[in-house]
Design brief:
single chain; alpha+beta; Outer Surface Protein A, domain 3; four-stranded antiparallel sheet; three-stranded antiparallel sheet; 3 helices
Length: about 180
Amino acid sequence: MSRIGKLPIIVPSDVDVICKGSEITVKGKFGTLHNEIPDNLEIQQKDGTLIVVLKNNTRNGSALHGLHRTLINNMIVGVSEQFELNLQLIGVGYRANVQGKLLVLNLGYSHTVDLEIPDTISVEVIQNTNIKIKSYNKEQLGLFAAQIRSWRPPEPYKGKGIRYENEIVQRKAGKSGKA
């Protein structure tokens, strides 16, 4: 059995969890999330906690047990607290700003990169080079951050590019001079 799947999920008092068969809905102060769990899993609600129970113990079922327990926990944390990611623009002339529902990036191309900000995500630019992204949906948050980062991933020689806040870029030595 999955060790992670066995752990109970603590539900805060300001979060409502509704389980109807294989459908689960979580409502909180930041939004509402829906998910569907497989048939071999069951959710039990007891005194402000949720327990994901595995009906039949197979290898695939055990893997799904831990996965769906984590997905449900992320839903509860997201609607009660929100998730946050920070991106850094490192490079001469790299900067970002928000114009309405667009994130405008200057990344050294001959044109600006305009990305539409999804409704569930809020973006804040600090000092032109730091981007703070918040959302209650962890999946969409990670996808949007990866989409931003894909325009200029950090390169290994000078470290220029878009990187996550605590990301470490392995640096390479450049060409050595003539011997």
